[in-house]
Design brief:
This is Fic/DOC family protein. It comes from Megasphaera vaginalis (ex Srinivasan et al. 2021). By secondary structure, the chain is mainly alpha-helical. Helices cover 64% and strands 2% of the residues. It is built from 13 helices and 2 strands. Strand 1 and strand 2 (123-125) form a beta hairpin. The radius of gyration is 19 Å and the shape is globular.
Length: 265
């Protein structure tokens, strides 16, 4: 079966509607989890017509617009090693032109302490700003993205969200990283439905308390099952159109090589 990353890259550059369908639904759910007021039709209008419909805050509009571009970048950039610089770049792309950017919080690790408000209003302690660089270096060096299991992804996600390295946007960046890791490891993407937000938060907290990633793994497994049910055409293309997709990839590569000028020695 064709790998998921190649499939999405070809769909991204081919008129089909399938890529955009996945893109807007992924963004609708991940942003909704963080309180975005955009409906699915409103995100589609923003993508297709570059027009904002509905009543939304400035930051919600800008972050939704930014997330459309960040999604594409992740799909193209999934093979790049995940470094602290790359992580801050993703955050900069998500937060540019927002109020957080005006305050100097975009693309940098947090400057003042923050915390997580968990289930039932419980306050969850996270790392202090001065601890973040060392903690993130350790976390980023701990895993080889190309060899991560679902359990590794859950452990990474739990630790990332517990460090909470940015002033804001940690949840969305964390779920974008899950997408990147799934593409790098050829795993079905993890798209957590906004309707499952409470189960997701409960699993994060339960995994912290019990020091076991299994509650979070179960949520991720459910999300992967939902992916194949929600996007059957992507599965069908991976299974039944492998040669056609590879032919398109070869043609695109040939065109790129023709456009690249030869350099003399």
């Amino acid at each position: 079966m064709l790998d998921i990353a190649s499939t999405l890259q070809v769909l991204k550059n081919t008129s089909n509607g399938i890529y955009d369908d996945f893109k807007v639904k992924f963004l609708y759910h991940t942003n909704k989890i963080e309180g975005s007021t955009f409906s699915l039709p409103e995100i589609i209008t923003l993508l297709k017509e570059n027009f904002v419909s509905g009543d939304h805050s400035w930051d919600d509009i800008i972050e939704t617009k930014n997330s459309l571009h960040l999604f594409d970048y992740i799909v193209e950039d999934y093979q790049s090693p995940l470094t602290a610089f790359k992580l801050r770049e993703y955050h900069q792309l998500l937060k540019q032109y927002t109020t957080d950017a005006d305050h100097g919080f975009a693309g940098v690790f947090k400057k003042i302490p923050n915390m997580i408000i968990g289930p039932a209003g419980k306050r969850i302690a996270v790392e202090q700003p001065h601890e973040v660089p060392e903690k993130m270096d350790y976390l980023l060096g701990k895993y080889n993205e190309r060899q991560m299991t679902l359990q590794d992804m859950a452990a990474f996600h739990l630790e990332f969200e517990t460090i909470h390295p940015f002033q804001d946007g940690n949840g969305r960046i964390g779920r974008f990283l899950l997408l990147k890791q799934c593409l790098a490891c050829n795993q079905d993407p993890i798209c957590i439905h906004s309707e499952s937000a409470q189960s997701y938060r409960n699993a994060l907290q339960l995994s912290r308390v019990e020091k076991s990633i299994e509650p979070l793994v179960e949520v991720f497994q459910s999300a992967q099952t939902n992916f194949n049910a929600d996007f059957p055409l992507i599965y069908d293309i991976r299974k039944n159109y492998e040669q056609e997709v590879r032919d398109i990839m070869a043609a695109e590569k040939a065109v790129q090589q023709e456009r690249t000028p030869e350099r003399g020695i």
